[in-house]
Amino acid sequence: DNGFNNYTALKAFDSVNAEGRVLGTWDFVAREQNVANDGSHGMSCFSTIAANIPGQFVGKAPKASFWLYQTEDNASEYPIEEFNWSCGAERSDSSGADVISTSLGYGYGFSGGLPDYPYTWLDGNTTMAAIAADLAAKKGLLVFAAAGNAGTISWHFILTPSDGDSVVAVGAVSAAGSVGSFSSYGPSGDGQIKP
């Protein structure tokens, strides 16, 4: 993700920090261990999984252990971030992870005037991120990837690596079960039902 600001200081993470369940960190952009000094989207997503504030909010897996990896460059949006993500997936496998939860994606809106990917490239077999995600799944990791937040813009579609055929693409719904207006739409470029 893009960083885990303040995860070492926030009350929601008291348990995970006190019990040493953040097993390690790495920022693939800055090439350093500190992932708590950049963006906060990773921290927000981490909280839905690991937070433990009894009586107020408990995440989905408050007793799990975690590796926190930053692969997103907050200053720009270039395809190199797919390489960073692929390195993060490889390190997850090497570290013995069971699950990858990623809330980012690529395909449109690149910096420097780079063109959007043709939607046909989001076929689960073309982009570096989808290939890496499917390889991670082949090695036994369960890979969850955000479908994206492009539902209300011209791109509209899912992003990579959620297009991978072995990736669980996660979309957003309201409490009533309606598709979240911002959530990206499938199918993938090769017609897979996604999310």
Task: Briefly summarize what is shown.
It is built from four helices and seven strands, in the order H-E-H-E-E-E-H-E-H-E-E. It has 195 residues and is an alpha/beta fold. The strands form three sheets. A three-stranded parallel β-sheet has the order 5-6-7, covered by helices on one side. A two-stranded parallel sheet has the order 1-4.
Overview of the structural elements:
The chain is α/β, with parallel strands linked by helices. The chain is built from four helices and seven strands; from the N terminus they run αβαβββαβαββ. The strands form three sheets. It has a three-stranded parallel beta sheet, covered by helices on one side. Helix 3 (80-95) packs parallel to helix 4.
Question: How do the helices and strands line up, and which of them pair or pack?
Answer:
Layout: H1 14-18, E1 22-27, H2 41-50, E2 52-53, E3 57-58, E4 66-70, H3 80-95, E5 99-102, H4 128-138, E6 142-146, E7 168-170
Helix pairs in contact: 3-4
Report the principal-axis shape. globular
What value does the Rg take, in angstroms?
Answer: 16 Å
Q: Which percent bin holds the helix content?
A: 10-25%
Structural category is alpha/beta
Beta-strand content: 5-15%
Strand order of the largest sheet: 5-6-7
SSE order, as H and E? HEHEEEHEHEE
The low-pLDDT segments are none
Largest sheet: 3 strands, parallel
DSSP helical segment count: 4
